[in-house]
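Case 330 in the screening queue. Each case pairs one protein sequence with one candidate compound; here the compound is tryptophan. For every case the pipeline is the same: read the inputs, emit a complex structure as tokens, and attach any notable structural observations.

Predict complex for case 330.
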Amino acid sequence: METVVSGIRSTGNLHLGNYFGAMGNFLKMQQEFNCFFFIADYHSLTTHPTPANLKNSVKQVLAEYLACGIDPEACTIYVQSDLPETAELYLLLNMNAYVGELERCTSFKDKIRQQPDNINAGLLTYPTLMAADILIHKAVKVPVGKDQEQHLEMARTFGNRFNRLYQTETFPEPYAFNFGNNLVKVPGLDGSGKMGKSEGEGNAVFLADPPEVIRKKVMRAVSDSGPTQPNQPKPEPITNLFTLMGLVSEPATLAHFNEAYDSCTIRYGDMKKQLAEDIIKFTAPLYDRIQTIVTDDVLLRKVMDSGKEKAKASAAKTIKEVREVIGFLR
Ligand code: TRP
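Case 330 output:
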């Protein structure tokens, strides 16, 4: 069975965009492939060297994935720093990763601009660590978005280079994979583009947002003064509200506001109130499950321990092979 690896940012709290997008793919993949999902806490140090609450953010993210249906029986879900084999492979891959190619990486150039006072070697070698995450399990499928394409290309380069240098076939080539379907695009609340954490405060509704926060965010969503003529096309921010409503509300509710729009009687205040309540109704079971799981230290510990054990079995095999190939004494 083909192996899948995906890294989850330890600050990657799930919002509705992730839920309707990537999460569906994860749930399907865990049924069909040999999946390793991990929380990338090593990687987080490249931008946050002294995280205020690393333990809690890792637990929170883990709880959110479990609440959405990631099943520790069906896949391996683990914490990156529980697998020092990854760090060893990272070291070895770095010996054959060239500074020039790392410097040309778009994400590195972006980070230089974002944090000019902390251009650390971990940032430069972020792609090597990501390659190690993937290659340590000899994964061939990586469920990531377009923004990670260059990192994946580098993972292939590093794996192929290793094979060539040491005359082996240790590493297969990993490729991005999303079941070939276009991910559902969930618009944000800021009137343009997509729902995302980095798109600005209030743009995303998080699964762990309490009801009052959801109400506040939705009521502040961008709209306009309303249609002035019947049956006009909707401007983008309005389309976005309707798209969101289509995801969480009853079809009759959506139809009601569509008619109100077409007849110019729509009141966006009412629509947003309804949308907020429907989002709350939709996320409530997830919200409750997240709260239950995140406070269940016994469960979280169990999941992390069994994930660590399964991931280690896979990683130890690769590291043993790599060490032999390079020619270490033992
Ligand atoms: N770079 C990825 C992101 O920002 C996270 C990540 C780290 C990852 N290691 C990975 C994703 C390995 C897939 C495979 O989202």
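Case 330 observations:
- The first helix runs from residue 16 to 20.
- The first strand starts at residue 3 and ends at 9.
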